[in-house]
């Protein structure tokens, strides 16, 4: 990916429905974790279905630079021979985490409790994002962090030679912060305790168990205490990565909105801490049927059959935000096409994503004619504008903004253009081709768009 040469794309409505059966790429959160936990385990882990997007490739490169043996064996098939907990070494060069907040923050956890010196940086989007939320609590294990501008990348870390266990109450609902502390706790003597007032995705807890660590979760639903005994023997254990529900979100909403569509998405991860979008769309009246529910690699998975539906406005409570935190831009598109008003509550965390997603989503909809407002941390969208589309959306190096805007173009009255499609590869390589395979009209802007009359 070369951020200096943006690739503008345009999407258009052509009247024909979307049809077909697809799979979306592997789950981004699980892919990062699989590489990290396997890199800390003893023995050889085989990973199937790994997301080969830019973000995850940064994690693979970083784990390799720290001493794990990470090899690609085929499409989505990776082999990792771990260095063992405490066995990683200082990288020879700066770790460049590209666009990935998850890679950067989780890696801080690993580095904090290893006797390692490392420097980490990222692209312009990642260098703007707050790192204090991880480096402040991680410092309590004995690591010393120095970061630019009060907590931004680049940062340098001298990890603790003999890390202390952590005890911390999460002030924000963030699986990244929780996971960073758990990763640090792996190489601390004693029990790391994390209090989680709002439940967030639990892939780290699941994967720790999968690799043989003793993780105790006390409390059900809201308000959990997570306890991890440090310095376990993590044993290599093969991982099958399910399809990413955050990526499935784009064809799901497209199929709901384009009249006459029927799309099946196979093998989608259905961890209940990730399914807030499906819950919300069903409240809007969506026709989504889940078939073949099963467990794969310790995570629930199913096939989703999605048929076009007239949606109505919705009021989404703030406590649902962690279960659909990455899905608000595409939900906002669905709301702009729904009948009536929608209110999406408690979206403060969107301000510190790959872009300020609250501002960027507002701008995406407004430039395309939708009526939308931000009221504190809530977004209010009036559905059913007279005429939608015709705008150029600034994606601010944010893959999810790009894909959301292209889905909007498939149903808007006039084409929608995005300034740069290159960042889509961070989470969803092949997105444009996959959507075109379903019948969508999307292509590079500035030339003839295949399929467009
Ligand atoms: C992620 C957690 C979420 C999410 C991100 C992936 C993870 O971030 O937005 O895309 O893999 O843990 P926060 O934990 O900061 O909410």
UniProtKB/TrEMBL annotation:
Pathways involved: Metabolic intermediate biosynthesis; chorismate biosynthesis; chorismate from D-erythrose 4-phosphate and phosphoenolpyruvate: step 6/7
EC nos: 2.5.1.19
Domain Enolpyruvate transferase: 14-433
Principal place of residence: cytoplasm
GO molecular-function term, one example from the UniProt record: 3-phosphoshikimate 1-carboxyvinyltransferase activity
Positions of the catalytic residues: 326 (proton acceptor)
Catalytic activity: 3-phosphoshikimate + phosphoenolpyruvate = 5-O-(1-carboxyvinyl)-3-phosphoshikimate + phosphate
UniProt entry tagged with the keyword Phosphoprotein: no
PROSITE patterns: EPSP_SYNTHASE_1 (PS00104), EPSP_SYNTHASE_2 (PS00885)
Pfam families: EPSP_synthase (PF00275)
Sites where the protein binds phosphoenolpyruvate: 28, 101, 129, 176, 357, 400
Chain sites annotated for binding 3-phosphoshikimate: 28-29, 33, 174, 176, 326, 353
Subcellular location: Cytoplasm
GO cellular component annotations of the record: cytoplasm
Record's keyword terms, sorted: Amino-acid biosynthesis, Aromatic amino acid biosynthesis, Cytoplasm, Transferase
Subunit structure: Monomer.
Family statement: Belongs to the EPSP synthase family.
Function description: Catalyzes the transfer of the enolpyruvyl moiety of phosphoenolpyruvate (PEP) to the 5-hydroxyl of shikimate-3-phosphate (S3P) to produce enolpyruvyl shikimate-3-phosphate and inorganic phosphate.
UniProt protein name: 3-phosphoshikimate 1-carboxyvinyltransferase
Organism: Acidiphilium acidophilum (Thiobacillus acidophilus)
Gene name of the record: aroA
């Amino acid at each position: 990916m070369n951020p200096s040469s943006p690739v503008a794309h345009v999407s258009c409505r052509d009247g024909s429905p979307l049809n077909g059966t697809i799979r979306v790429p592997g789950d981004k959160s699980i892919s990062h974790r699989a590489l990290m936990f396997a890199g800390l385990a003893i023995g050889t882990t085989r990973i199937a279905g790994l997301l080969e997007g830019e973000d995850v490739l940064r994690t693979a490169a970083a784990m390799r630079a720290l001493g794990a043996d990470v090899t690609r064996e085929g499409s989505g098939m990776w082999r990792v021979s771990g260095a063992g907990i405490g066995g990683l070494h200082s990288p020879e060069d700066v770790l460049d985490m590209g666009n990935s907040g998850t890679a950067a923050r989780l890696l801080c956890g690993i580095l904090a409790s290893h006797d390692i010196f490392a420097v980490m940086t990222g692209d312009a989007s990642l260098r703007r994002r707050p790192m204090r939320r991880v480096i402040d609590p991680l410092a309590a294990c004995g690591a010393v962090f120095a970061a630019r501008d009060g907590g931004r990348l680049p940062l340098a870390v001298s990890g603790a030679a003999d890390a202390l266990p952590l005890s911390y109450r999460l002030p924000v609902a963030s699986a990244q912060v929780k996971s960073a502390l758990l990763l640090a706790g792996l190489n601390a003597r004693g029990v790391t305790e994390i209090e989680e007032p709002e439940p967030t995705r639990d892939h780290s807890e699941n994967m720790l168990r999968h690799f043989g660590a003793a993780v105790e979760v006390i409390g059900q639903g809201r308000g959990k205490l997570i306890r991890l005994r440090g310095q376990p023997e993590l044993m290599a254990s093969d991982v099958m990565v399910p399809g990413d529900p955050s990526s499935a979100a784009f064809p799901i909403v497209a199929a709901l909105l384009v009249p006459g569509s029927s799309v099946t998405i196979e093998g989608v991860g259905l961890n209940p801490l990730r399914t807030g979008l499906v819950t919300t769309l069903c409240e809007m009246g969506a026709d989504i049927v889940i078939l073949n529910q099963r467990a794969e690699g310790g995570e629930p998975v199913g096939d989703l059959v999605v048929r076009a539906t007239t949606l109505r406005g919705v009021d989404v409570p703030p406590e649902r935000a962690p279960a659909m935190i990455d899905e608000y831009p595409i939900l906002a598109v669905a709301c702009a096409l729904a009948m009536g008003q929608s209110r999406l509550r408690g979206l403060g965390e969107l301000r510190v994503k790959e872009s300020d997603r609250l501002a960027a989503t507002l701008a995406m909809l407004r430039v395309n004619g939708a009526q939308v407002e931000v009221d504190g941390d809530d977004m209010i969208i009036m559905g059913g504008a007279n005429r939608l589309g015709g705008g150029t959306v600034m994606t601010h190096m944010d893959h999810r903004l790009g894909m959301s805007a292209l889905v909007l173009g498939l149903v808007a009255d006039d084409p929608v253009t995005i300034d740069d499609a290159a960042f889509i590869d961070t989470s969803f390589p092949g997105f444009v081709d996959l959507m075109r395979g379903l019948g969508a009209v999307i292509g590079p802007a500035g030339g003839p768009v295949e399929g467009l009359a």
